[in-house]
Amino acid sequence: MPAETQSRAIFRARTDGPRPVPFQPLSPARYVPATGRAGSKKFVRISWNRTRIAAMGPETSSIAANLEAVRERIVRAAQRARRRPEEITLIAVSKTFPAESIRLGYAAGVRHFGENRVQEWEAKQPLLADLDATWHLVGHLQSNKAVRAARLFHSIDSLDSAALAQKLDRAVGGQSFSSDKNAVSAGQVGAPAMAGCALPVKSLAVLIEVCLAPEETKSGASEAEVPALAEAVLGLAHLDLRGLMCIPPYFDNPEQARPYFRKLRELRDALSRRLNRALPELSMGMSHDFEAAIEEGATQVRLGTAIFGLRKSPGHEEAETP
Question: In the predicted model, what is the mean pLDDT of residues 260-264?
């Protein structure tokens, strides 16, 4: 085969159609600037994929392609804000989707997943205990489920009261483990415990959920309550306060959510100064508005439909609570 023909064949093999791509962390080094029309800039993705392409089913192809598009949008939003894309953690919100969909997301490179309901994750977790992923509870947590949540999740991203914080702290501190291979700690999901030995207790990461639109949402601490709640959490030995989370009202125009994202960042910065403590995480932004959230400082974005597609069950996207 002539060299030119061979080169074209290789290019087509690398670029035609969706393909399973081993995940690599987002990095500006994989995107090189190129000049666009009227002197604008665009970023061209450089890929060194193998030419041999494995066959994929429709769902595999869809999730992988959706993730690729989402990652590119994260990169562009970070570049607009003069931020590094690797500063942003993508949390795939998998509520109502089966374990098979989560496994496909994991195969495509996702390592953080969010669930809304303790009961739903309890049913899925045994099917996914082999995955080395980080599991977030992003929905409202009822206090009577605190013990179960502490055993099932690495991070509770919706803490909204001192009473709930105290229950989580006691749950983490008082955990004991059996030799059941599915026994989990707050810090190590799916890790087996040795017979007769308790796993070392780990701290449970938490984010305080802030209610910035009380007329729209019922969950979350008010702005006035946040400082006292943060100080209460810092006094608990088994909780690790990492930052703040918010769910703004839904707007067809994502620019209308921007003031809420900016407000949460300002609130986090003021709280960090008051506590004299770094609060590195800002969890804000969902499938319809995550780019504006990144531009306003989000370090975690929670995406469901943008990755897995439309949910079959009724309810509003990632913001739905139990």
Answer: 98
